[in-house]
Amino acid sequence: GAMRLAERRVIVKRLAAMHNIGAMDVLCTDKTGTLTEATIRMVRHLDFRGAESERVFRLAYLNSHFESGIKSPLDEAIIAFRSLDVTGWRKIDEVPFDFERRRVSVLVTDGTERLLVVKGAPEDVLRQSTHYEGEGGVEMPLDPAARADLDALFQKLGEDGFRVLAIASKAMGPDHASAALGDESELAFAGYAVFLDPPKASAMAAIRDLTGAGVAVRLLTGDNERVTRHVCAELGLPVIGLITGDDLRAMSEEALRARLPKVNVFCRVTPAQKERVLL
C-alpha cells in the first residue's frame, strides 16, 4: 500500500495511517484554503447604498495597516488591493481580534482627528452601530429601515458567494489615549469590504470521490450561512442540515449528539466550537 501511494507522490510516515484512512466514514473539513484557493482578493468597497466608496477603503486600510500581530488573509487582501499613503497617521492603541467579538479595532490619529476604526463580522459590527455614514459622510441614525437595507445588502453579497467585512468608525476626543472594549459602541457604520475566494478546481471531484467511497463530508467554517451555501452549491455538496455557531452555543451536549447525524454543514463557528463538534 505504501509503495502504491508513493507512486502517487504520497509519503506514508505511519503505516497505521493507511488503515485509519481506509476505515474512515466521516471527513470533517474546513473551507478556506482547503476547499477554496485561499488566494483571497478584495474586489469591492461599498457604502450604505452599495456604491464604491473610497472612504470605506481608507478606513479598512488604516485598520489592516495598523493592526498588530499576524495579518489575516483578509488583511493582506486589503493591503494588496492598492497602496495608500498613511505616513500622516499613527496608531495610539488597539483592541485585538478575538473569535467571540469577531472584530478588531485600532485607535489612530492624523493630528487633527482621532478615530476608532473597527473591522469585523457584519452582524457584530452592525449590532454595535447606532449611525451610518450617509451622503457626503453625514452621520445618519441607523433606524430599523436603514438597518434592514444594510442587512439585505450583506445577505445579497453572501448569496453571490462573496465574503464580507463590515467597516465602522467612531470619533474620539483628543485626549482619548487608549482603546477598550467599551469604546466599540455607538459606531458609525461606513460600509463593506468585499472579497472573493473561489473553490479549488479539484475540490468538487474530491468530494464526489469521497461520497462514492462511502465517506460523508462535513464542512465546518467561520463564514456566514449564505456564502457557505453558495460554496456548497459550487462544490456539489448538498446541504442536508445546517447549524450555526449561535445554535451551537445554545445546545446541550445531548442535543448536539442528537442533531449530528442529520447535519453536514456548520457555519459561523469558532475554533473552540469546531473542536466541540469533532470531539
Protein traits:
alpha/beta, Rossmann fold, Calcium-transporting ATPase, cytoplasmic domain N, 2 domains, eight-stranded mixed sheet, 12 strands
Give the SSE layout:
Layout: H1 2-7, H2 15-22, E1 26-29, E2 41-46, H3 54-66, H4 73-81, E3 90-98, E4 103-109, E5 114-120, H5 122-127, E6 129-133, E7 139-141, H6 144-159, E8 163-172, E9 187-196, H7 203-212, E10 216-220, H8 225-235, E11 242-244, H9 245-249, H10 253-259, E12 265-267, H11 271-278
Parallel strand pairs: 1-10, 6-9, 10-12, 11-12
Antiparallel strand pairs: 2-9, 3-4, 4-5, 5-8, 6-7, 8-9
Helix pairs in contact: 3-4, 6-8
What summary fits the major beta sheet?
8 strands, mixed
CATH uppermost class of the largest domain: Alpha Beta
Write the H/E string, N to C.
HHEEHHEEEHEEHEEHEHEHHEH
CATH topology of the largest domain: Calcium-transporting ATPase, cytoplasmic domain N
**How big is the Rg?**
21 Å
What is the architecture of the largest domain at the second tier of CATH? 3-Layer(aba) Sandwich
Q: Structural class per helix/strand content?
A: alpha/beta
Q: Could you tell me the number of beta strands? A: 12
CATH H level, superfamily name of the largest domain:
Calcium-transporting ATPase, cytoplasmic domain N
Summary of the model, kept short:
The chain is α/β, with parallel strands linked by helices and 279 residues long. The protein contains eleven helices and twelve strands.
Can you offer a commentary on this structure?
This protein has 279 residues and is of the alpha/beta class. The protein folds into two domains: 13-38 and 199-278, HAD superfamily/HAD-like (Rossmann fold, 3-Layer(aba) Sandwich), CATH 3.40.50.1000; 41-196, 3-Layer(aba) Sandwich (Calcium-transporting ATPase, cytoplasmic domain N), CATH 3.40.1110.10. It is 35% helix and 26% strand. The chain has eleven helices and twelve strands. It has helices at 2-7, 15-22, 54-66, 73-81, 122-127, 144-159, 203-212, 225-235, 245-249, 253-259, 271-278; strands at 26-29, 41-46, 90-98, 103-109, 114-120, 129-133, 139-141, 163-172, 187-196, 216-220, 242-244, 265-267. Strands 2, 3, 4, 5, 6, 7, 8 and 9 form an eight-stranded mixed sheet that branches. A four-stranded parallel sheet has the order 1-10-12-11. A hairpin with a 4-residue loop joins strand 4 and strand 5 (114-120). Helix 6 (144-159) runs parallel beside helix 8. It is elongated, with a radius of gyration of 21 Å. The mean pLDDT is 93. It is found in: Membrane. Pfam families: Cation_ATPase. Keywords: Membrane, Transmembrane, Transmembrane helix. One of its GO terms (molecular function) is nucleotide binding. It comes from Azospirillum palustre.
